[in-house]
Specification:
By secondary structure, the chain is mainly β. Helix content is about 5%, strand content about 45%. The protein has one domain: Distorted Sandwich (Beta-galactosidase, Chain A, domain 5), CATH 2.70.98. It contains 2 helices and 24 strands. The longest helix has 6 residues. One of its GO terms (molecular function) is glucose-6-phosphate 1-epimerase activity.
Length: about 290
């Protein structure tokens, strides 16, 4: 995503500015290590480009920046649930307005912290009190951490995901390893399946890998690089690509958009909210993903 040409609204430091795309404000990071963009709408990372490389993050050229719709591409924050186990699908965090609470920088990079707090809108969807923080560390690697804290008087339960869209040169030539062999196949009515240790796509995929390795690697022969994804706080890794038939059914993805993306997601997966992670009052939980090339 071209962050440089976007109009500047505010200069916060030598490395951090607020820019705007259509109706969405974006925290733009320009550092000698890398550039990045984090949209306040959704707390959504829209770009991470190490110096001298193409973007590691894929954004749809048809993503809708109206400040209402969830953005297509980037790293959507799916919380307080993942999937269609409640309404709206993937929760409300990815379509809520987050606040910039802190930014700091040094020679190694820039750290940006956003916050999402309860509101009338969130209470109508989910009646709990919470403090959600997104900490984005931009340097030689990109680290995104979702930290949620229960500030309610009673326990609540959640699931979630950092729904990363990776940018690849050609999905049919990208080779993924480290996701493990066991997966729940959403395209086969959540049937538990066994697969190989290397994955090259030839069709749509929507799988919850239940035993991923510490690192998942995507070897990208076209862009001549290997993407490494290291997740923390997860119980599974979701891999997704809608393929041509899925892309054609989305208004915010080009028909050929599926050819240059692969989702590898750090996920707290649960078949229902009741089966998710339960936090007692004052307890916190962190879900993270670290991405590098």
């Amino acid at each position: 995503m071209d962050l440089v040409s976007l109009p500047t609204l505010a200069v916060l430091s030598d490395n951090v500015t607020i820019v705007e795309k259509d109706q969405v404000k974006i925290v733009r990071v320009i550092h000698e290590k890398a550039t990045a963009g984090i949209a306040l709408h959704g707390g959504h990372v829209v770009s991470y480009q190490p110096t001298g490389q193409q973007d590691l993050i894929w954004m749809s050229e048809k993503a809708i920046f109206d400040g209402k719709a969830a953005l297509r591409g980037g790293i959507p924050v799916c919380w307080p649930w993942f999937g269609r186990i409640a309404v709206p699908a993937h929760g409300f965090a990815r379509s809520s307005e987050w606040e910039l609470v802190e930014h700091r920088e040094n020679d190694q990079g820039v750290i940006v912290e956003l916050a999402l707090f309860p509101s009338e809108e969130t209470h109508q969807i989910w009646p709990h009190m919470f403090d959600a923080r997104l900490i984005v560390e931009v340097g030689d690697k990109l680290k995104v951490t979702l930290k949620v804290t229960n500030i309610d008087d009673e326990a609540w339960t959640f699931s979630g995901a950092l729904h990363t869209y990776l940018n690849v040169g050609d999905i049919t030539q990208a080779q993924t390893t480290g996701m493990g062999s066991e997966y729940i196949d959403s395209l086969l009515e959540d049937q538990v399946c066994q697969g190989g240790d290397t994955l090259v796509l030839t069709d749509t995929i929507d799988r919850v890998y239940t035993q991923p390795a510490a690192q998942i690697k995507v070897e990208d022969k076209v862009l001549d690089r290997t993407l490494t994804i290291e997740n923390h706080g997860h119980n599974s890794a979701v891999l997704w690509n809608p393929w041509s038939q899925g892309a054609q059914g989305m208004t915010d993805m080009a028909d050929n958009g599926y050819q240059t993306m692969l989702c590898v997601e750090s996920t707290v997966h649960a078949p229902s909210i009741q089966h998710g992670v339960t936090l007692q009052p004052d307890q916190s939980y962190e879900l993270a993903t670290v991405i590098s090339a």
